[in-house]
Prior knowledge:
This protein is an alpha/beta fold. The protein is built from 8 helices and 10 strands. The protein has helices at 8-26, 49-56, 100-109, 126-136, 152-166, 184-195, 199-207, 216-228, and strands at residues 35-40, 66-72, 81-83, 88-91, 94-97, 113-115, 141-147, 171-176, 231-235, 249-253. The chain starts with 7 loop residues before the first helix and ends in a 7-residue tail after the last strand.
Amino acid sequence: MNISSYSREELTRGLERAKSNRQSVNGKNRAGDAVRVMFSPRSITSENIDEVYELYSHIEEGQYDTVVVVESHPGSAEKKLPMPSFKSVTTPLGEIMANDRLRNDFCDEDDDFFINDEAFDTSVCLYDQLMMLQCALKNFTVVSIQITDENPYIVKELAYALEEILASKNALVVFCCDLDDSHREEFEKVMKFYENRNYSGMMNYLAAADSSMKGAGTFMAGLLVSSKWGLSLNFNHRVNSDTHNLLIGFAEMQHQPIFG
């Protein structure tokens, strides 16, 4: 069953339950104001909804002004990084306005960004994420970015634009990607590149085109942005063995020790 079959009340209860569970485990419900990046499944269904509840429970109502949703849509359009032109987008839970000014900022930043609807259709990941966001946040705008060419150069250009444009903005970036838990060796290989700051190794791995990841370019862009912003990565499967998508997780500002 797809997320579109869930009511607002069901989704809200799931989020509240996940927050309560985290509070009982951690002894307190840590505020989510440090989360800047999330890695979410491309499709949210009854099979992964509990994992998604846990993920989205890390953000708080009213926390962000805007959300940028990034997803891979390879081979579907001539433009490398198209952004749909909608003024607003509607889900079963209601309407969300686009952040037109921010969308134009991306177009001004790099020639690979275009406001273009060629790759935008009902199969995009955006709608599933928006339904969760509508239950977790209030009064936010959205920008959708699609990667139609997962060439390492394009992925690096996307990461650079995201980190530059959004660095000082009150924005959350959601990267949509999947990797089944049967491919743990691949996950650990990519994360070893990341932890060793071997970003050229990451990009070479992406260029080899033998990845089992769905949305590999999107995931790599998320890692590059997280590194540039100095974020701490947290993946669900490292604390919950029931998580089947190895890429579900979030990245937050690293907590600094307080001396005095």
